[in-house]
């Protein structure tokens, strides 16, 4: 199982001081956080994609390429790549290039985002959101899987004998997660292709997460990729920790109360009882995270949101120390002990290259025998 963090890259005032970091400071902080993630032994760093204030990560591959040069083991991912408004040709080439730069330590999470105005900014119609996601991804898969593509669709100009460059590293495209909070069509899309499904387990109750993941698992089996238990699932989560749970609640409360995404709504206590947000001691985070398995089954990736709502960099780095030293080692052990036989490992580039080589060998044997 893989553990990591994801960032939305918000530039938010610290409610305890009133100070707003500059865009430059926030970007540099995200880079420092990624390098800290590797230092404390996490597996994954993922960044969102946004094109509007107060967010700064408008060019994820630029950021991830920089991080690739300063890390050795960290898997670099997006927590949203806007499959609806990005050109599939550009996605294919950008992420294949990043694969080469990072020696394969790359995957990508497709999503539609949560900012409606982004559609007209990139010449699209929000009413076409689902159809764009389906058509664009179908083209992206062909661009990665086929050396020469001739294609015609509804939302972009046709392609005639086109080859995207560079080709995927080792002939294996980045692993794809389809991220969704509320859209069953996206769970269906992930299942159809046999890709991973990432449910950003943040704002919704456990019953909703369970429903979405179960739909994906059932449809994954329907399309012949394996049993429901063999489907590849990832979850998001939010935590804030201190050694003492009362200290965590007291320190995090002003950040929660003023956060752009959930401030001025339900109380901290209401939100933590109704969603996976956990504010407390490392042990409480361990227990809450282990409980996710009760309603989604064995899964492959757990990412935490930790650098948001105006939290200063120093505090975020302290959180990462707690996560890496006290929480993740226990989670690794406990999840491994509970894991049922036959559940696949989290995807890595090396494992997928080896699997592709085995499939080629088996196909060759079948042809020879025939």
UniProtKB/TrEMBL annotation:
The keyword Oxidoreductase applies. Residues 359-370 have a biased composition (Basic and acidic residues). Residues 1-294 form the Luciferase-like domain. Residues 343-370 are annotated as: Disordered. Keywords: Monooxygenase, Oxidoreductase. It comes from the Bacteria. PANTHER family: BLR5498 PROTEIN, LUCIFERASE-LIKE MONOOXYGENASE. This is LLM class flavin-dependent oxidoreductase. It comes from Streptomyces yangpuensis. The lineage of its organism: Bacteria, Bacillati, Actinomycetota, Actinomycetes, Kitasatosporales.
